[in-house]
UniProtKB/TrEMBL annotation:
The keyword Transferase applies. Keywords: Kinase, Transferase. Residues 35-284 form the Protein kinase domain. One of its GO terms (biological process) is signal transduction. Signal peptide: none annotated. InterPro entries: Kinase-like_dom_sf (IPR011009), Plant_MAPKKK (IPR052751), Prot_kinase_dom (IPR000719). This is Protein kinase, catalytic domain protein.
Length: 306
């Protein structure tokens, strides 16, 4: 749920009786009171996103000490070693809070679902997402929950990967996700691990392949089927027939069948096709970013000091 523009009273009504019985994080209310014109921008399964300015949001754990937000903070700390333009930028980290760049144009799902005459730059999007996932892979991690809701659109119609709550080391079992961006394995399957396999190039490229299908077709893989039928098709490795003479379709098929040893290999193939057709992203003004970080730290200190 994004772009909600809710105040604190609206938020309480949203949670209803659950609010009275849970250890609700006081930082959420403090941020809404401390920041002029701030609103609840989004509500997740275990976090609330507060928009504190047109360019900054704060993602706050609903429960203090939530391990999933702590995991996301760890990933963003690792990402400081990299320079990936297609991952949402973290501006400041504090206890129970992540300050992030605001991407107000909605998710990839919103972009594809909307009635728009603007063409979908599918190849560019494929390059951007593969670049983001390869960056995480290079750190020894998998995103673990790649789907259209966890990809946002920026001002230039370019994509940025978000939500690292469920990111996990390569080789760990994958236990979250939904079809067709994950698939279950039958008993005895060589790739079994968690409910959806073992985190790594196979699971990540599979999710990307299903996203690429969604981008190119405008509908999700097997969206015409009921849930159980979709699950059965995917468990049996039954996929739609694609045109292997088409570079995008060939990549989708390769991803579904795990033919890339690494996501980096997938990225290299897309780069070879995209060539110079991809648009460069606008460079970020260094002074502007420093100022944003200062503002975030100032707000954090104001809502956490005794």
């Amino acid at each position: 749920m994004t772009g909600l523009c809710m105040n604190y009273d609206d938020l309480i009504r949203h949670f209803g009786n659950w609010f009275e019985t849970t250890d609700f994080n006081p930082i959420i209310e403090r941020l809404l009171l401390a920041c002029p014109s701030s609103t609840v921008f989004a509500i997740g399964g275990h976090s609330v996103v507060v928009q504190i300015s047109p360019s900054i949001v704060a993602k706050v754990a609903v429960h203090p000490g939530d391990s999933r937000l702590q995991n996301e903070q760890k990933i963003f700390q690792l990402l400081e070693q990299t320079d990936c333009r297609y991952i949402a930028k973290c501006l400041f980290r504090g206890t129970d809070v992540l300050f992030l760049e605001c991407l107000p144009h909605g998710s990839l799902h919103d972009r594809i679902s909307s009635i728009s005459k603007v063409p979908r730059p599918v190849l560019q999007w494929m390059l951007q997402l593969s670049s983001a996932v390869a960056c995480i892979e290079n750190l020894g991690y998998a995103h673990g929950d790649i789907n259209p809701q966890n990809v946002l659109v920026d001002d230039n119609d370019q994509l940025k990967l978000i939500d690292f709550d469920h990111a996990l080391p390569i080789g760990d079992p994958v236990d979250v996700g939904y079809e067709p961006y994950v698939r279950q394995y039958r008993a005895g399957a060589k790739d079994k691990g968690g409910a959806f396999g073992v985190a790594g190039p196979t699971t990540e490229q599979y999710a990307l392949g299903s996203l690429f299908w969604y981008m190119s077709r405008g509908t999700e893989l097997y969206s015409e089927l009921e849930g159980p039928d979709r699950v059965e098709r995917l468990m049996d490795d039954i996929f739609p027939v694609v045109n292997l003479e088409d570079p995008i379709d060939k990549i989708i098929d390769n991803c579904w069948h795990g033919r890339y040893n690494r996501v980096a290999d997938l990225l290299k193939e897309i780069e070879g096709i995209a060539g110079s057709t991809t648009k460069e992203q606008k460079l970020v003004d260094g002074d502007e970013e420093v100022e944003k970080r200062r503002i975030c730290e100032e707000y954090y200190n104001s809502v956490t000091r005794p």
